[in-house]
Every structure is written in C-alpha cells, then in structure tokens.
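FORM 12-B: Structure-to-Sequence Request
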C-alpha cells in the first residue's frame, strides 16, 4: 500500500521531475516508509512506500526489471502474489525480491496486459516499457485503489490522490457542471472518469489503459459480472447459497491476511465486520487487534454501537480498542479529514474513519474492514423499493428512491453558469442500466451501486481516511470472486430478512443471534447531522469567506434559507442540506482551489 505519481511527455520535452517530486512529497502520508524517483526518456515516476510485503529495500519503488526493460510503480496488494510468483518461476522467471511489485512486472513480461486477469487484490499500477516508451496504467476490478489523471497538450500526469496532482501544478481547476450535478444528486458520488474539477479525471475501475509514445491510448475493461442467474448455480437452494457465500467469504478473509506485519480489524459491531472477526478466529487467529469508534449523542441521537462491538470482542477475546469522540472534537477533526479527501465526501462517517485510522495506525499497519457488504448483498433499506418495479422502470425508480434531490431543484441551488441543460445524473443512471445483463430491477440497481456508487463513495472514503495515516484497509466483501457469486445469487435471497438475508444465514453459523438479528445500524456522527455549535460555526465561516463570495457557486437566497434553520433542511435521503453544500466549499478552500 503506497502512493504513486508520474508524468509522461508526448512532445520533445523532458518530464518535469521537480513537479513529480512535489506530487510524490504530497503523498508522504500514504507511504511513510520510503521515497523514490525515477526518470528516463519521456517518463518520470515517483513513489512513496508503506512497507507491508518484503520489508527490505529490495521491495523499494520505482522498481526496474533490467532483463525485461520494465519499470513500474504500484499501490495496493496482490493477495495471491505467492501463487502467481510460483507459476512464473515454473515458466522460467527469476526473482530478486519477495515483493508483490516484482510479481506484477514479471507477470506483465509474461502475459502483457492480460496480467491483470491473474491478480486477486486491490491495485493501481503504472508500467513503463523502457525501450518503446509505451506506458500501461491499470486499476483493480472494484476500484479500491485510486488513480487520478490530468492531461494537457503534450503531457499526462497521474497520481494516487487529486491533491497530489494539484501539487504538481498546471491543473485546470474550473468546476465540471456534470460532476457537480452528480455531487448534488447522488450523495456526493461522482462517477469515473469525472471529478468535480474539469482538469482531473479518474481511470475507471477494472480498466487497463495503454498509452502510446504519441499520446494516443486504448482502454480495455477487463471484468464485469453479468448480474444474471448463471447455469452452474441452477438447482441451488437457500442452504446451498448460504454455504457458498460463507465459503467464499472465508476464502476472501484468509487471502487478506497475507502480510509481513500484523493485520487487525475495524469492528463496528455490525454483521459484516463481526463476520470477519469470527472467520479469523475460526482460522485460529490469536490476539487479534480490533478497533471501534463512537460519538457523543446530539439532538437525541446516539452515536455509538459499542454494545455490539464489545459483545464480539469478548466472545472472540480480541485485543479491543475503543475511541469515544466528544462533539467538540468533531469540529477540530473536520479540517484534517477534509484535507485527506481526494474529492468532496458528505457522508458523516468520513470524520469517524479519519479519527479511527489515527488510533489504529499507532497499533497496526493493516486492517480488514466490512465495507461493501450492503451494496453487494442488498443490505440497505431502499432496496426493496428498487426491486418492486419492472426492469424497464428501474432507472426512474432509482432516481426517485436514491437521489438526494431531483434535477428540477438545481436551478434554485446553483448559479446559472454551473447548471447543465439536462438531467445529467438521471442520464447516467439510464445509460448504465441499459447495458446488457442485470435481468431484474434489483440486479440493475446492485450493479450500479457496486460498480459506481460503492467505488466513488464508501470505498474512496475508506481509502482516503485510512491512507492519510499510513494505514492499509482491506475489504474482503469486495473480493471479486465473492462479488461474482453475489451477483449471480437470486434477488429474493438477498432481500430476505430485511436485507442481506443470505449473509445473515451465513452469520448464524458463527455469531451471536443478537448481532445477526439486530436492526440495521448506520454510523451517525450526530454533531454533523444536527449541526452542533462548533460544526455550524465552521460552516458559516466557510460560506461567508471571501473565497466563497468570489466563487459564487450557490444562490444567495438558497444559502440564506439554509443558514436561517441549519438543522431543518434535509435532502430526500435525510442528509443535512446545509452540510451538503458547505462541505464542497470547505473542500475547495482547504485545497486552495480558486
């Protein structure tokens, strides 16, 4: 787990190594254990290292395979790297390190861009063919590891975070109206390849991009489950599906234990993280470190679930750590969390993850997290509504149920120069759901949520907040084989028992019933949801700042309405509407975007 950066020139100029160094230094938190810069011909690469596998300097990056004439940088972890390494050794390859980075280089030498089909893990990597000047960029199937791009005439830059690209300079920081529409509609989800900045794009998940010496490129999407009932699963009943899911999750958790350092667990006390702890205990894991966070109550709303996390910690005798955050600490923690955001994120638990990651990073460098289970196994309360319509009506229903606000609201929120002439978010949903596969309405919704919303909201949130403290988070529910299995599972088994029915059945084989059958929990941060005093003061400060006035994103009358009653205005999803708009402005100011 690390941070990478670089520049490719398509003209006769040399890469700006100083800019690459600035980008690399901005990634220091993601990789506190090492720094490297490499430049040859039209390409320069930078890397910050977090030592997880092969702790020696032989695993340092950028890494060059002198025999193959390849140089690469890599962020992530290839969980099956030892198996791939054995296969490559049998094919005659020789290794100088025990790192998964070198496995990527050798695999590319053996299989070219098809190497990604051999990897199980989370990754973003860049490989340079030193002789041809061709550069290959790739991202893992579920987009767990980020890769941001900024292209101008004659040049392409890339980095693990958007702020790193900004540190390099020369980025068009004007706002993208389509991305802004998605931000306000889709709970801050901005789908790849867009970001809110017109000059920054994201390599989509499950994509390999081959960039030629002249700047032309081709993209290949190398993975996408069909979300249909597959013939090999015909005849399976509910018990068979329960066993298949439990076996696949057991394998996913076991894979994510590969490391040369200890691995802990973020334990919320919900079904998902509790299952991870239970399966690790089943594997014989002793003295497992677990971590939970809670917040002071505000507005009559509780902010912790320690009752359940303590229950699991006691049952499996973990080395448990608790963090209780008072409301006045939330306001002081906001700025650190927002500085860690590659893109603006409105979910309250972003602050929770940032604070928890600070605590966890003092104890371990790697944790497993339950992120993704609700999207993969239909755990949210709105999925029954999405499943209750005919397949053809699903795009319309999805917008009604999930979006924060309709397209018609944009004109009273945004200044005219930022408005789109069409429902950009609704169009995206319609086009995504029109793709082949996804035979039922629920299949279409889960495909969209798993491969778009999940990537550009919850997964990005966890990556940004944990890596800001040099902490690697692994997500077994996003094991691609488990996702493929869940995509083929009959919708009624996922919707059963109030959601995640098949996963709850699997959980009963390991966990106390009061954890499996508890009401669905969310991760509230009451101080933000109810605009506690210090948080509201920070919001007012940002919206009244000279930068905000000069930028003029939002209509003055709309802001005045929100500020007059900060806790009264809610989006259709129940989010605080003032927080939604203020967070964007605070993010722009934090990253000095004019």
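FORM 12-B RESPONSE
SEQUENCE OUT:
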């Amino acid at each position: 787990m690390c941070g990478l950066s670089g520049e490719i020139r398509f003209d006769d100029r040399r890469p700006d190594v100083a800019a690459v160094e600035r980008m690399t230094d901005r990634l220091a938190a993601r990789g506190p254990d090492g720094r490297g810069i490499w430049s040859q011909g039209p390409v320069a690469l930078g890397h910050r290292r977090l030592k997880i596998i092969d702790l020696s300097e032989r695993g340092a990056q950028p890494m060059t395979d002198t025999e193959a004439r390849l140089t690469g940088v890599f962020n992530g972890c290839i969980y099956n790297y030892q198996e791939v390494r054995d296969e490559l050794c049998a094919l005659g390859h020789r290794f100088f390190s025990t790192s998964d980075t070198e496995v990527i280089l050798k695999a590319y030498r053996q299989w070219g861009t098809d190497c990604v089909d051999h990897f199980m893990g989370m990754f973003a990597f860049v490989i340079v063919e030193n002789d041809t000047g061709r550069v290959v960029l790739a991202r893992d199937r579920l987009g767990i590891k980020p890769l941001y791009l900024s292209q101008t005439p004659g040049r392409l830059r890339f980095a693990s975070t958007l702020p790193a690209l900004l540190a390099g300079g020369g980025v068009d920081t004007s706002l993208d109206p389509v991305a802004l529409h998605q931000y306000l509609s889709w709970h801050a989800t901005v789908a790849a390849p867009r970001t809110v900045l017109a000059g920054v794009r994201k390599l989509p998940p499950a994509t390999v991009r081959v960039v030629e010496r002249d700047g032309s490129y081709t993209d290949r999407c190398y993975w996408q489950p069909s979300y249909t009932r597959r013939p090999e699963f015909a005849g399976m009943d509910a018990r068979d599906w329960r066993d298949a899911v439990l076996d696949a999750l057991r394998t996913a958790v076991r894979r994510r234990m590969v490391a040369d350092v200890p691995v802990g667990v973020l334990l919320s006390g919900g079904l998902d993280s509790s299952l991870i702890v239970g399966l690790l205990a089943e594997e014989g894991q002793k003295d497992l470190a677990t971590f939970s966070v809670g917040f002071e109550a505000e507005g009559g709303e509780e902010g912790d679930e320690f009752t359940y996390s303590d229950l699991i910690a006691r049952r499996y005798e973990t080395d448990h750590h608790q963090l209780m955050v008072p409301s006045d600490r939330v306001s002081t923690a906001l700025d650190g969390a927002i500085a860690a955001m590659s893109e603006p994120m409105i979910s309250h638990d972003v602050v929770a993850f940032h604070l928890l990651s600070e605590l966890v990073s003092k104890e371990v460098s790697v944790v497993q997290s339950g992120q993704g289970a609700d999207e993969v196994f239909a755990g949210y309360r709105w999925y029954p509504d999405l499943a209750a319509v005919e397949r053809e009506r699903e795009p319309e229903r999805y917008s009604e149920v999930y979006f924060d606000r309709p397209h018609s609201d944009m004109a009273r929120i945004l200044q005219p120069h930022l408005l789109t002439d069409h429902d950009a978010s609704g169009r995206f949903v319609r086009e995504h759901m029109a793709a082949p596969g996804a035979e039922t309405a629920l299949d279409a919704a889960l495909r969209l949520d798993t491969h778009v919303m999940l990537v550009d909201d919850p997964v990005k949130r966890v990556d940004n907040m944990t890596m800001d403290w040099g902490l690697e988070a692994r997500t077994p529910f996003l094991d691609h084989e488990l996702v493929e299995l869940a995509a083929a599972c009959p919708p009624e088994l996922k919707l059963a028992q109030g959601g995640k029915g098949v996963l709850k059945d699997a959980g009963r084989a390991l966990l106390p019933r009061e954890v499996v059958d508890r009401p669905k929990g969310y991760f509230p941060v009451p101080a933000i949801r109810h605009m506690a005093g210090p948080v509201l003061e920070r919001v007012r400060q940002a919206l009244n700042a000279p930068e905000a006035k000069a930028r003029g994103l939002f209509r003055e009358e709309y802001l005045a309405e929100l500020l007059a009653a900060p806790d009264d205005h809610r989006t259709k999803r129940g989010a605080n509407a003032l927080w939604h708009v203020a967070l964007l402005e605070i993010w722009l100011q934090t990253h000095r975007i004019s």
